[in-house]
Amino acid sequence: MTNRKETPSKTGKAIRDRINAIIGINRHSNYDVARIIDKSERYVRVHRKGDLEWSLGDVERYGAATGYTPGEIMADAFTIKPAMNER
Question: Superkingdom of this entry's organism (predicted)?
Answer without folding.
Answer: Bacteria
